[in-house]
Amino acid sequence: MATGIAFFVALLLWSTFRLGYALSLNYYEQTCPDAEFIISKAVKEAFMNDKTVPAAILRMHFHDCFIRGCDASVLLDTDGGGKVEKSGFPNLSLHAFYVIDNAKKAVEAACPGVVSCADVLALAARDAVVLAGGPTWDVPKGRQDGRTSVASETLQLPAPTFNLSQLQQSFAQRGLNLGDLVALSGGHTLGVSHCSSFQNRLYNFDATHDTDPSMNPAFAASLKKVCPAHNNAQNGGVNMDPSPTSFDNTYYKLIVQRKCLLSSDQALLTAPSTKSLVYKFATSKEAFYEAFIKSMIKMSSLTGGQEVRKNCRKVN
Ligand code: HEM
Ligand SMILES: *[C@@H]1O[C@H](CO)[C@@H](O)[C@H](O)[C@H]1NC(C)=O
Ligand SMILES: *[C@@H]1O[C@H](CO)[C@@H](O)[C@H](O)[C@H]1NC(C)=O
């Protein structure tokens, strides 16, 4: 009897484990062998006209994976119900959705109804990193698209004001550890941030400091010029690092110099284990790349969903 139960439990665990890890590198080998090439081509075409495309696509994939798993819920304009993730806060810099539309259209023309929008986005995120001069890797595939997107669920994303324990908790809820947090935060080598995302560090920081004391004072002064107090008008955004279209390890050097934008970036120095990783990645681009690839594969394997959408903007 006990053996029977143990066997049943083992079977249950095994099938759950399998469902969670159903992705594979050769998933489209028979059904759509050119899928990756077709998607890369579409992302590259967009990149040729707009060098900010990689930042947009990488962040889009992160937002997708952190809410309901990587199920393309972030791409929906409607799920037939209420407001979708796109209209939730924080959505400011989510843009370039047309890139995914173009890639999906091209891949539908070659193999209709086969490649999920979640896979298109995961592959496009890898392509984005490569186009920005970063490393390449093989992306496991076989994700399914979800049928639900809820605006208020974007509040489950980590906030830029989070301290390390809050960040750790947010990542742990998705099976990601502190090493993954440090490596994936390296995505902030690309793109821009709006003043509202780091205003907390510049004015009325806490009871004893007007400005965040963990920020380099000269850097804080320069940011205050671009982001005046009591001015919530959105500017064009401040570059995350001086090379916002190049995927390198500058981001980590800036954390060490206390010249990064977000509290959540600077927070990576507040525990010995994350601090030592920041220093490691600041001195070795190769070490950063290796860790980033591992953590990206982990994050992009958080699956959800149950169909292959025909149009990434609406459920079938
Ligand atoms: C650790 C928790 C994270 C927080 C709190 C966070 C927060 C933010 C914020 C506030 C912005 C600026 C939004 C704006 O003001 O417009 C931003 C931008 C960005 N984030 Fe993150 N992020 C996190 C993790 C990640 C991860 C894991 C990735 C990808 C691997 C990523 C990729 C990006 C990119 C590429 C941009 C620039 C987007 C653009 O210029 O279009 N972030 N993030
Ligand atoms: C972003 O969210 C805000 C606040 O919920 C909303 O007013 C705005 O329309 C959204 N932006 C987009 C592009 O959907
Ligand atoms: C992080 O923030 C939370 C929520 O504000 C707080 O309870 C916690 O004490 C903070 N942790 C540290 C280490 O500052």
List keywords for this structure.
single chain, 316 residues, mainly alpha, Peroxidase, domain 2, 2 domains, two-stranded antiparallel sheet, 12 helices, binds protoporphyrin IX containing FE
How does the helix and strand content classify structurally?
mainly alpha
- How many helices? The count is 12
CATH class of the largest domain: Mainly Alpha
Distance between the termini: 45 Å
Instruction: Give the count of structural domains.
Output: 2
Helix content: 40-55%
Could you report the average pLDDT, rounded to the nearest whole number?
92
Kindly state the number of beta strands.
2
Query: Which strand order spans the largest sheet, edge to edge or round the barrel?
Result: 1-2
Question: What hetero molecules are bound to the protein chains?
Answer: protoporphyrin IX containing FE, 2-acetamido-2-deoxy-beta-D-glucopyranose
Keywords: Calcium, Disulfide bond, Glycoprotein, Heme, Hydrogen peroxide, Iron, Metal-binding, Oxidoreductase, Peroxidase, Secreted, Signal
Catalytic activity: 2 a phenolic donor + H2O2 = 2 a phenolic radical donor + 2 H2O
Binding site for Ca(2+) 1: 64, 69, 71, 73, 85
Domain Plant heme peroxidase family profile: 22-316
